[in-house]
Each structure stands twice: as C-alpha cells, then as structure tokens.
Amino acid sequence: MKILYKDGTVADCPQDEELQVLRHSTAHVMAQAIKRLFPNADFAYGPATERGFYYDVDLGDTKLTDEDLANIEKEMKKIVKENLPVKAYILPREEAIKLMEDRGAKYKVEHIGDLPEDAEISFYQQGEYIDMCTGPHVTYTKALKAFKITGQSGAYWKNDQKNKMLTRVNGVAFRTQEELAEYERLQEEAKARDHRKIGRDMKLFMTDDLIGKGLPMFLPNGYEIWQQLENYIKEKERRLGYLHVLTPCVGTVNLYRTSGHWEHYRENMFPMMQVEDEEFVLRPMNCPHHMMIYANQKHSYKDLPIRIGEIAHDFRFEKSGTLKGIERGRHFCQNDAHLFVTPEQIKDEVGSVVNLIFDVYKDFNITNYRCVLSLRDPEDKVKYHQDDAMWEKAETALREVLTELGVDFTEEIGEAAFYGPKLDVNVQPAVGAEYTLSTCQLDFCLPAKFNLTYVDKDGTEKTPVVLHRAILGSLDRFMAYLIEETKGIFPVWLAPLQVKLLCLPNTDTTFAKELYEKLLDAGVRVKLDDRNETIGYKIREARQVDRVPYMFIIGAKEIETHTLSVRELVTDKTTEYTVDEFIAKITDEIKNRK
C-alpha cells in the first residue's frame, strides 16, 4: 500500500503501520461525509485508535440518530467509490490560520494557536474536504476497503469539562472485508457474553438511576454467587493464617490526608461530607483502616507476619462513561488484605500471595493471563509519593523477589500505585481487552506515614513493610469475568440454582415434594416447578433463563420406580439415577467445588 507524507512524498507503507494509516484516513473520509450531510459541522480531533478511529465534531443543536449514522456510512462508501486523490501541503502559520478561518474551522484555529511558533502546519485534501493533519494517509480514497461506523458518544473539547460537549462519532477500519467480518462476529459474541445482558436474564443484579449510576444491587440469584465466592476465598485465606475484620465504609478526611490519598487520589473520591465538626468521605480503599487496626496495639517481630483480610465495601467516583455493570461501578467489594511483614519476610509472603493467585486461577480454569511489574514513571513524579530512595528500594525488592520466585513478568512504567510498585495479573477475557484481576503491591510508604512499628530482636523499634493484595480483585468484577467466560453456565457449587424439578402436567406431586425436601436437607439449592405448563416450556426456561446445571423430569415412570431422569445442562444428556446416587453425586460436587 502506498502512503502520502505531509511533504508530498509517496512511499510504501511499513506493514506495522498499515492499520494506523487506514484508520486515520478513514476518519478523514468520515469527516468529509459528515460535512456533506451537515454543512455547518465543525471538526475538532479525529485520530486513529488501537481499535479504530473517531472524530469529535460540533454539530450545533443537531443530535445524530441511528439513521444519520447509517447515512454517514453510506456517504463514506460513496466517497471511496469516487476514488478521490489525496493531496498534502504545508502552509505558513498565517496562511494556515486564514485557510481555517475562511472555512469556519474554529477548533482548528484554536489548535494552531496551541502549537509552537516554529511548528510545521500541514494539510491533507481529498475532493472538497481539507483537514489539518500531520499524516500520513492513503493516496486515493479507494484504498479504504473495509470500515463501519460503530456508534456515537459525547466528548469535551480538549477533554476538559469546562469546554463544550462535542459529538464523538466512532468507527472501525480493517485491511479486508474478511477482517471486518471477523470483527463483527466477535462483536456478536461479545453481546452474547455481555454480563449485563446475562445478569438481567438470570436476575443476578440490577441498576436504577433513581438509586444512582454505577451502584448495582445484587438480586437473590446474584447474591448467592457473591456469597459463595466470599466463602471460597475466605476459606483459602483462613488456611493461610489470615484474620478477617470488618471496618466502616467512611473515614475522616484527616485519615486520607495522613495516608496521602487526599493529595494523590481525591479526584476519584466522592465529595467530602461535613458532619458536626468533622469531615468525612466514603472510602475508596481500605488500607488506611487496616493501618489503624495494626496501630491499635504494640507488636513484636514474633507477631509478624500479620495478615488482615476483609471483603470491604469501597466507593470511587468513576466517570459515567466508564461505568459497565458490575465490572466497573462506583460501589464494589474488594477481596482485600494487608500483610504486615519484616523485610526478611517479603520474599516468602510475596511468594505465598503469588501461589494463592495461581491456585485460585487453577480452580477457576483461568489460563489466559500475564504478570506485569508496574513501576513509577520517573519522568512524572508528581502523582507519586516523593521519596526517590524509597522507590528505588521498593522497585528493586519486588523485582528481585519475582525473579527469584521464577514468575514470568513484563515491566510497565507509570502503572504503580502512588505509594509503591505492584505486581498486576492481567486476564484476557473471552471477548474484549485485558484488565487487571489480581494485584500484590509492595509498600514502604504508608507504614511510615502512620508511624507503624514493631520491636525487633535487638529491642529497637522498626517499621514494618506492608503488602497490599487482592486475589479476586473485587468480587463484583470477578463475577462479571466469570459470567462472560461461562455465559452464565456456572459450575454446580457456584450456580445460584443447582437443581430444578420439572413435573409433567397433571402429575401427582407427592414424590416431587418429598424429593425437594431431601435435596434441601442435603444442602442443595433446588426449586420445584409444578406449574401447569408444557414440559418443553419448563425445560427452555430452566436452560435459557435459570441455566440450572441439573433438571429432573418427573412423570409417572419416575413416581412408580422412584428413579430420577436427570438432564445435565452442559452435556444435554439424560441419565438415570436413584435418589441416593444423585444426592451423593451432587453433594460431592458442591463440597469439593468440582
């Protein structure tokens, strides 16, 4: 593929830049189509992105409809078919400003004003459309073979809420129609797996704007899963010597001033509340509370490590555009813990945390993940605790421990917590981009801020090191991950409803009710469906809505023989069991979390 640079030269496009150029060029074609359909449109920024492209445009009072988006895409295809040649040229600043002013491009004029005085100001033109851009671009519009508009959203000019809200039109572009078709297939797969849709269908959780955006409520089915996850991880933690606590969802502003969160994290916190003569905030994380629990009594080196765990309710003021069901909300529950250790215990305790993470991933068959050592950005120290020596010590210590443990990891600059480096375990879900599920952070900072100490072997007071760790991350996000991985078909121990008894119409329900009681007594989550509905309807509901692992179809034969015809959701096979055989089977699966 040939591409055009801003100085007018043409060259072969490097293979690793093809998608970037195609997507950027498609953004220009989309802007040209919008301008044809909406002559008063004024354009801001229109870059290529990792997944596609967008253009921010001021349409005045016009609100785009789905029909408008379809018409824009239709006009884009027309522009491509016209096979317009693309031209590039550079203008002196004053000529560039006049050109944009004459075309009514006030955002481009403002953008020129933001550029250095000696900046080259280049333009690309295709047909009647001229755009200020550094390029490069395709040489003819016909080179764009596969694209699609995917939607619209709002975006502030220069990403500043004080500026005007513009319309962001989003799209994707690929080399071939086959690549676009594969993208569309994955989008359909993503819709089928979307935990928000499955959550509605299975009655797992709900949201309501009257309660507030990003504040999900777990319904009985969803809360059953939530409780099972809580029991699961607490059981594992207790075996490793964790002590579980319960702390308040609020704290004083002074608590967060002491920890440093008020300085470094305030923009992500809910506003301060004045109560009598005190100032409170909803807590965004739990470490300050746990620091105070440690400080509540004196400690000897013999007491360490101390492992304090909590399923803790936290609140963060996420922007509304980033909210996504229970995967990302303003309220969530962290599987949080803080380990207070001596420097000599760092390796063993980090190793124990890493082993716990991998053990949990094995239990849930999570195999597609990568480990990242997240470090401070030395070129942007403002958002971090100011102590170069501490950072050097902490980063070196965590890197050496992970290396000694044989953990395969990459390093990423700028992803550390404000108080220290961390190990992030990023999972790749069945659809969509990867995200962090588990984390282990090494902290020399907060223990010093809270004046935490222990008496060492030599009788002197030392400052402990703290490991912040979350294995499931938040229970909310972990549940969202499981929903999308399994499409709501949970393992038996985790399923909100484990067995459903489906009575054939006009059947005596005595046997079914006796069986229902036996299953309840065995600790099985069971429901009896003796409604006067067809068996086909009941089976579809059990499979598609309840997604129940085991269905019993109970008719005259089962009543007479006291045997069970058990249909399994995963295999769709029906197997005959005696009552005792099945109860032994399912209780074993539940107890051992198979």
Q: Structural class of the secondary structure composition?
A: alpha+beta
Low-confidence stretches: none
Which strand order do you get reading across the main beta sheet? 13-17-18-25-22-21-19-20
Could you report the average pLDDT, rounded to the nearest whole number? 92
Distance between the termini: 53 Å
Counted by DSSP, the helix tally is 18
Give the strand content.
25-35%
Count of strand segments = 30
Shape: globular
Tell me the radius of gyration. 30 Å
Structure description:
The chain has about 600 residues and is an alpha+beta fold. Helices cover about 35% and strands about 25% of the residues. The strands form eight sheets. It has an eight-stranded mixed β-sheet with strand order 13-17-18-25-22-21-19-20, with helices on both faces. A five-stranded mixed β-sheet has the order 27-26-28-29-30, with helices on both faces. A hairpin with a 2-residue loop joins strand 15 and strand 16 (about 280). Helix 3 (about 95-100) packs antiparallel against helix 4 (about 105-115) and helix 6 crosses helix 14. It is globular, with a radius of gyration of 30 Å.
Characteristics of this structure?
alpha+beta, globular
Concise synopsis of the structure shown:
The chain has 594 residues and is an alpha+beta fold. A hairpin with an 8-residue loop joins β9 and β10 (165-174).
